[in-house]
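The protein record filed below.
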Amino acid sequence: MRLSRIIELNPYLQSFLYIIGGDIAIYVGMELLNSESKDITDEDITENIKEHIEGTDIDFEPDDTEILKLNTVRKTLYKLYSEKLAQFRRIRDKSTGWFIYYWWHEFDLLEEIILEKKKLIESKLRDRLEFEQNNYFFICINCEDSNIKYNFEEAFELNFRCPNCGGSLEAQDNQAIIEFLKNKIVLNENTKIAID
């Protein structure tokens, strides 16, 4: 991968793009940034990326003769769209009847998107913490898969017997899980997001 093409991306943006769609998302993001002042189609993005990686060992389609397919770029663009990092408008080509999609980035919303994800993570952690704190759990220590745990109501309905092996269900101390979740919540709260 050519580092000069990636350095231009904000490190947060680069990381977020990679999480969303791997290396191809980084390349698509660069093309969206570079085309900020003009309309760009998914076909143009594909061709531009092919030009940039020509002569390198980069191959986004290792099981194919092509190094990059239009469909791979389209899937990546839709992933960016679903994460609110890209938008498009479509126009019907009068000669073919096909739709042409013109894409642009919404990278200026990155901080807002990350903060939204941070809030979602915190909410899920708090929900799980509340669930762990408000329930008693039981596990079968005889079964190989002792990761299956039953809350009190489920264990009571099973007469405190494992449905797999018939062994007794033992109370599980979930204090370690509770502490882990509390630490994750504090870490999440203390993580500051400042994108320049």
